[in-house]
Design goal:
Blueprint (H helix, E strand, L loop, with lengths): L4 H7 L3 E4 L2 H10 L3 E7 L10 H12 L3 E7 L20 H15 L11 E4 L1 H4 L4 H7 L6 H4 L3 H7 L5 H4 L1 H16 L1 E7 L3 H15 L4 E5 L27 H9 L6 H8 L4 H10 L1 H17 L1 H15 L26 E4 L2 H4 L2 E2 H7 L6 H9 L3 E3 L2 E2 L6 E2 L8 E6 L3 E7 L1
Parallel strand pairs: 2-3, 2-5, 3-4, 5-6, 7-13
Antiparallel strand pairs: 1-6, 8-11, 9-10, 9-12, 12-13
Helix pairs in contact: 10-11, 12-15, 12-16, 13-14, 13-15, 14-15, 15-16, 18-19
Length: about 425
Amino acid sequence: MKENVFHALKDRGFIVQTTDDTAIEQLLAERKVTCYIGFDATADSLHIGSLVPIMALVHMQRHGHRPIALLGGGTTMVGDPSGKTEMRQLLSVGQILDFGMKIKGQFARYLEFADGKALFLNNADWLLPLNYIEFLRDVGAHFSVNRMLTADSVKLRLETGLSFIEFNYMLLQAYDFYVQARDYGCEIQMGGQDQWGNIVAGVDLVRRKLNQTVYGMTFTLITTASGEKFGKSAGNAIWLDADRTPVVDFYQYFRNTDDRDVEKHLGLFTLLPMDEIRRLPRENVNRAKEILAYEATRLSHGRDAAAQAYRSMAAQFGSADPDGKVSTSSDILQIGAGGADLPTVTLPASLIADKLWVVKLFLEAGLCATNGEARRLIQGGGAYVNDKPVADPGLELTSADLMNGALVLSAGKKRHKRVVFV
């Protein structure tokens, strides 16, 4: 029996809340369903804050459902207040059209659009021709201002100032759901958890206008360490466009995932089976980070670019598993261990059998000519062992510090050695 996509999304950590768990689970089990997520064209590229909803659409399609990627060509002209502390900069029609075309190309990496398997729509097609007075009478009459004021996206902005144009955004997003339910048979709207108020408004509008039951589902947001929504407004965007964020930097972002988030990110940003996702971090968390980085990069930039990024990082810092001892269905193991490409120094095992002074280690590895040079390197913050900075010139290493029987040393950004003990 084929897995229900609702269970897959739950298991992988996507779902935060729905309008009706039981009804959605049953609907997705019974037949092919059309769902949508909206993406405003506020830049010429999406960023990894958009990857969670994109991957949700990927899972929906892989389970036989039809996703709609909705470009907000119309709503971008208004600006969504959700998750923002101030009003968005208003863009020109020309900018929005240009951004939209570039974003459309990005979706082709993730979804199959041939033969109607997925749709790419633009809400400018139905929002821009609207007559304002007719819209107020036809749609605005169904909205209670008192209820709108209780939505988090509105409530939070009232503290810093909410413009009237932004206040209209909820009506426009609700109207999007209505049009897609009416014209495309769309039954589920999905989005980030900050979209809950807008999604519920759409569910209610469809019920009132079409006498039809539709559903809403929200997903976890990727946030910064301070809890701020990850994206352009946080000033820390990792873009899906390689011209804005080089592939190797995209890879490195995921390679640097906090140990506590590795399993969660494997569930959200890869298509690996859940049994592997649960197993890999327990076996070797650094290898799991490599696999996460490779798989996320492969999905967004292709296999060749991901392989090149993997080799580049492994050549600099060594691989967490150069011998391929951690098994996975990921084809990362077929690439070849970049750590094997590093200059390798062989030292007697007796040196590390007890305690090996880090200064002597850099000297024996040939990265420093004297003890004094090694001390200065460490004190200047340029010495690394296994990709971790060495802060104490008195540090002593033991066999417990070995990774797959070796140590990877770095003197600055360009000089690296792999040290094995035999």
